[in-house]
Design a protein that fits this description.
Helix content is about 35%, strand content about 25%. The chain has about 220 residues and is α+β, with helices and mostly antiparallel strands. It folds into three domains: about 40 residues, no CATH class; about 55 residues, no CATH class; about 100 residues, no CATH class. The protein starts with about 25 loop residues before the first strand and ends in a 9-residue tail after the last strand. The structure holds zinc ion. The site of zinc ion has 7 residues, from loops.
């Protein structure tokens, strides 16, 4: 590494041209990984987290971003006024900077959760749980229209992954006989939340879902 970087008095953001002052948050963009040559500086507004940038562009998220949003939303809404204080500085900054997106994603997760509950009440609790508990086979699959469904379970938990095109959503349920009220949820997601919600709604609307054993199905959604 070369000498320590010092900010010049007339520094500007290489993208939006706003002045960058001492004490501002900014990022140094290098020409390449090795030379240490600085290409430009980037102001905090122009520097966007990769996952957030991808979400803004495509509406698509990963399980990771979905979890981050759920955690952030807890701190915004239920954690109390000083809830963010205990967070690591970079996490706190992420939650503050991308609040709009994270609130939006958390709301999408709530809507997905409602459809998962509907699926659980219509399909899982009344008959799919019995199908699962009656079989010794682990991996199962089926199709509903153009949606591919995979089911796999372990240690009292069952995962059902629904997949169409580039989107997939994985639900998690309990297989305990004694559990009769819906308490499942989202285990994983890739793609847009809107697509996931549509996939799940089509499953809810399906009359009956019949799985078949398929040994190539191993760990659904993982
Ligand atoms: Zn800028």
């Amino acid at each position: 590494m070369g000498r320590a970087f010092s900010l010049k008095a007339d520094s500007k953001c290489g993208e939006c041209n706003q002045p960058i002052h001492e004490g501002d948050i900014y990022t140094i963009i290098y020409e390449d990984d090795n030379s240490g040559k600085i290409k430009c500086l980037q102001c905090d507004k122009c520097e966007v987290d990769d996952e957030i940038a991808y979400y803004r562009k495509t509406g698509e998220i990963s399980s990771h971003l979905s979890l981050e949003a759920a955690m952030a939303n807890y701190h915004y809404t239920e954690g109390g006024p000083n809830s963010m204080d205990s967070l690591r500085a970079d996490v706190r900054r992420f939650f503050i900077k991308y609040k709009k997106e994270l609130v939006e994603i958390a709301a999408g997760t709530d809507r997905i959760h409602d459809v998962i509950r509907a699926f659980e009440e219509k399909h899982w609790l009344p008959y799919l749980k019995k199908y699962w508990n009656d079989t010794d086979q682990r991996g199962h699959e089926t199709k509903v229209g153009d949606i591919k469904l995979m089911l796999w379970g372990c240690a009292g938990r069952v995962l059902i992954t629904a997949e169409r095109g580039n989107s997939d959503i994985t639900m998690i349920f309990s297989d305990y006989e004694s559990q009769v009220t819906a308490n499942g949820g989202q285990q994983g997601i890739h793609g847009s939340q809107k697509a996931a919600q549509e996939i799940l709604q089509e499953l809810v609307d399906a009359k009956k879902i019949k799985f078949k054993h398929n040994k190539s199905v191993t760990m659904a959604g993982l």
